[in-house]
Amino acid sequence: MSELPFGITQKELRIGIGIAVAAGIAALLPLFDQGYYLSLSVNLMLYAALCTAWTLFSGPTHYVSLASAAFFGLGTYAVALGVESIPFPILVAFGAVAAAILAGLVGAATLRLSGVYFVIFTLGLAELVRQVVTWAQAKFTGKTGLYVFTDFREMHIFWMLLALTIAIFITGWLINRSRLGFAMQIIGNDETVARHVGIDTARSKILLFMISGAFIGIAGAICAPRYAYIQPPSAFNPQISFLVVIMALLGGTKRLWGPLVGVVPFIFVMDFVAARLPNQMPIVMGIAFLAIVYFVPNGVTGVLEKALAKWKARNAPAPQAVADKPAEVRP
Amino acid sequence: MQIIVTGILLSGTYALIALGLTLQYGVARIMNLANGETLVAGCFIAFWLFASFAINPILGLFIIAPLAFAFNWGIYQVALKPLVDRAKNRGQLEVDSILATFGLMFLLQGLMISGFGGEYHSYQFLSERFEIFGSAYGLNRVVAFIAAVVIAAVLYYFLYRTRLGTAVRAVAVDPNSANLVAIDVAKVAAVTFALGGALTACGGALLSTFYTFNASMGVTFTMKALIIVIMGGVGDVRGAVVAALILGIAETLVATYIDPGLTIAATYTLFIIILLVRPQGIFGRRTT
Questions:
Q1: Of A74, A152, A183, B74, most Cβ neighbours within 10 A?
Q2: pLDDT in tens, A26-51
Q3: Best interface-test mutation with A: which of B268, B272, B274, B280 has the largest number of A CBs within 10 A?
Q4: Mind listing the domains of chain A with CATH numbers?
Q5: Is A282 in contact with B261 (Cβ distance < 8 A)?
């Protein structure tokens, strides 16, 4: 076996090539359809990015974050405020920084305490930011909304979201290899142990939350041109937060790719509901939450993994088949 | 002065809602995020009783409270008991109950929107002038406040002067030890959860006499109730009352002097101060 740079294993290389091929095929999609399917794919890509970014933080820590809509809205607003005078990439960066700062503040206030405080705080966060933005907008500009005119079309947004999703996956992989990722693994298993071996648990969690928030902010910034006219209620729509949680938990948050398994079917369900029964949305979301808690508490990937482990155990009763994932030894 | 009185009158109903939640979370260990929906259901039933049968909302409480008690008892037994039994530890139960009650929240909200529509409702009940210290207030607000005080006093008597009330407080302190002194923890938890729901529904019925309500406003009230509960200390009755007073006055101040659209910002400012200074609440004990 030849030596690979940066200590990348053969398996990781194969997975990387597989992802590159899949992303390449996905990138070709806008060339085939420009209408309904492209629009659906943009939604799919958007939630793939949001849910993966959410899982980056909530997967290892088990904290349920409902702040997605707040970060998303900040990203959208960053673009809306400066779209006429400042280049788009810089605005996207602004969105990321604004979301990361908000995440840092929220984290500093709540992540030192138990998980309940965090959930409660993030539950109202989007509403809080929306109220403040609405108030500031009315007071200082006298307007209720902002126009966003760009040359971007649906296909450009799709490509940007695809690139963002890949960037999140690469970041997640890099975090896993870093000291932060190692610390998160220990915190996820037992926080008391983590504190005793000298990990600053609050700092690690806040840092990870900021990274996750920044990516959600970027997703919001990328989507700003889609709206054309932006008002606080549409930018800070709390439904985004809940949908992200449902899809990510449906897929399973133990692996970073888990949420994708939840996003794909749920986007189709949502599309169907939005088209046929637009007023029944809360009922569908309610049933989805209940179904996840009672029937698939570990997500679809959890169920699949269990089935796979059983199947492996039956076919090869060797001791290593019991192990979930063979430990990788690194020099 | 007028602001403080308005704030105090508002805080009466807030206190009832928060008492309901603090019982559910402090004793039954269920973080009930569908609490606001129970409140909205209370509003709608009071409205329906008043509009269709001309039943005075204060008398309506005697219908609404038992209904809400039965309904919440059913929810606890059917939906939440399995989670309590399944949970390996407190953290697991917390995450599960939060997600499950989110589900209930959306489900109930969706059902109420289909049933009553999304628009705002209100009705005229005792909307007359009532003077306190020379300024005029709505008589309905004063009556709602008095009713809330009476209900809270009855609750206090129940918790501190009866056998079952003592059992409830014992479970709040430590379910395992309560079990050792022959308290049926499962039963007490179910009863307390139902009682919490009944209190919240009463709060809703009183609120509906002076407040314009709609089917999707539950979350806002859940939020306020949660902040009051944390501010007062989880499971603490006196704390919830004091915190409700603080929140009611703070909200009225912000709405009067800065902007009525910033009430959430006001509650959040209080919330952040509490989290940074005293996360266990005003009367709460520090747990390890």
A1: A74
A2: 777 777 777 788 888 888 899 999 99
A3: B268
A4: 33-280 (1.10.3470)
A5: no
